[in-house]
Design a protein that fits this description.
The chain contains 16 helices and 17 strands. The chain is an alpha/beta fold. The chain folds into two domains: 284 residues, UDP-N-acetylmuramoyl-L-alanine:D-glutamate ligase (3-Layer(aba) Sandwich); 137 residues, Alpha-Beta Complex (Protein-Tyrosine Phosphatase, Chain A).
Length: 436
């Protein structure tokens, strides 16, 4: 059996064994018990940075990684979900985990623990791999939420980060409203540990401040302890004692300033003198992160046309994407949007953000990929009905490839594929673009 197939086989055992239990909603009891059996690897990781939030977690982590690596440091990364291969979730000292190493650690976890979910098993695997392979920094991204997430088991991370909060995953956690979501995400705060807070809605900010006081976390807040600004295309960060200027950011979109700022504030809080302003500037301009306003290369899906993918899958992310599309429209370019999302998402709010910038809206089924979490895709006809109530007639394609062909046949200058990380992953796979 090929190594990749062995990895998938190992993971499938956890998926079926957990009897439908979803780790973020369940809490940390199961994974804590398992980690004790594994020697508590989560507390043997150097300089762990724990990141939560609704939008921008991956981008913020990518900026941190790029800046640290530009300074010559080695960096572990755990993110979710993946686009094409599950290995994308775990980077060991900067490189995607090898199939054999991942299969081996999953087999060991299976032998020594009981009842873990798919996500818990991957989280435990990341902690084990990171503990056994030293690096200078580890970036740990929350799967969903915060307090009850499987990653929230580190006793003393080096820093915690909260990226912008908006409404998402409310059904999963049984909460409603930004305040409740913020309280859940503040569950990663720790006594005496820096808590870097990116720009937030007023309600969320108030809750985060309150929770930080309760846990005695050391707050570093956007606008108060650090600021960012644009000088033309140049990005400028000003912290309490650190200034960084990059001629541009490697990730597209003006909204990336808030993610780059949170990343700079995190490294300033760590105080590692090896990470100089010059290295940070170099990292900021070289940062990459797939499916974030990413233009597809010429290939089987995109052809030679301008086709973009963006992982916007909640109203906050859709608003940021809409702003980027609107900016291209100011230059006279028109946009077709190819859209599919999971059924659990707030489809109406997503479409309300996107429809004003869509000259053409084309819907397709959400491809079913291995390792997909969060439930099935929304039925395109149902999505079309919601669009109609909002005043937009949508066309429906049988699949992603047909949807892109329909968009390209409309004569519009740009096509944007969005609504789900999994849709973006399917687009990359169909265009023969692996994630390295």
């Amino acid at each position: 059996m090929a190594d990749a197939a062995i990895v998938n086989s190992e993971l499938e055992r956890f998926r079926t064994n957990s009897a439908g239990r979803v780790s973020p909603a369940w809490g940390t009891a199961h994974i804590r018990k398992a980690l004790v059996e594994l020697g508590d690897p989560q507390d043997r990781i150097a300089q762990a940075i724990h990141i939560t939030g609704t939008n921008g977690k991956g981008s913020t982590g990518a900026f941190i990684r790029a800046m640290a690596e530009a300074a010559g440091l080695s960096v572990h990364v755990f993110t979710s979900p993946h686009l094409i291969r599950v290995n994308e979730r775990i980077r060991v000292a900067g490189k995607l985990v090898e199939d054999e190493a991942l299969a081996d650690v999953l087999a060991d976890i299976w032998r020594r623990t009981d009842g873990l979910t798919y996500f818990e098993a991957l989280t435990a695997a990341a902690f084990c791999l990171f503990a056994h392979n030293p690096a200078d920094i580890a970036i740990i991204e929350v799967g969903a939420g915060g307090a009850t997430d499987a990653t929230n088991v580190m006793n003393h991370p080096a820093a915690t980060v909260v990226t912008p909060i908006s409404r998402d995953h409310e059904t999963m956690f049984g909460v409603s409203g930004v305040a409740a979501i913020a309280r859940l995400k503040a569950g990663i705060f720790r006594d005496g540990v820096p808590a870097i807070i990116a720009p937030q809605p007023a309600i969320a900010l108030g809750v985060l401040r309150e929770e930080a006081r309760t846990t005695a976390a050391r707050v570093l807040e956007a606008g108060a302890d650090w600021t960012t600004r644009w000088e033309g295309e140049a990005f400028v960060y000003q912290g309490l004692s650190l200034s960084v200027r990059a001629p541009w950011l490697g990730l597209r979109g003006k909204h990336q300033a808030q993610n780059a700022g949170a990343a700079c504030a995190t490294l300033e809080a760590l105080g590692d003198r090896r990470i100089t302003p010059a290295a940070m500037a170099a990292g900021l301009r070289e940062t990459t992160w797939p499916a974030r306003l990413q233009r597809l290369k010429p290939g089987p899906l995109a052809g030679d046309a301008a086709v973009w993918i963006d992982a916007a899958h909640n109203p906050g992310g859709a608003a940021m994407l809409a702003a980027a599309i609107r900016a291209s429209g100011e230059e006279g370019e028109r946009a077709a949007i190819v859209f599919a999302c999971q059924a659990v998402k707030d489809v109406e709010s997503l479409l309300a953000e996107l429809m004003p910038v869509a000259d053409e809206l084309i819907l397709c089924p959400l491809p079913d990929s291995g390792g997909q979490e969060g439930g099935p895709g929304a039925e395109p006809r149902h999505v079309a009905g919601i669009a109609a109530t909002l005043g937009k007639q949508a066309r429906i394609a049988d699949n992603l490839e047909d949807a892109v062909r329909m968009a390209q046949g409309s004569g519009l200058e740009r096509t944007y594929i969005c609504g789900s990380v999994y849709l973006c992953g399917a687009a990359l796979a169909a265009n023969d673009e692996p994630v390295a």
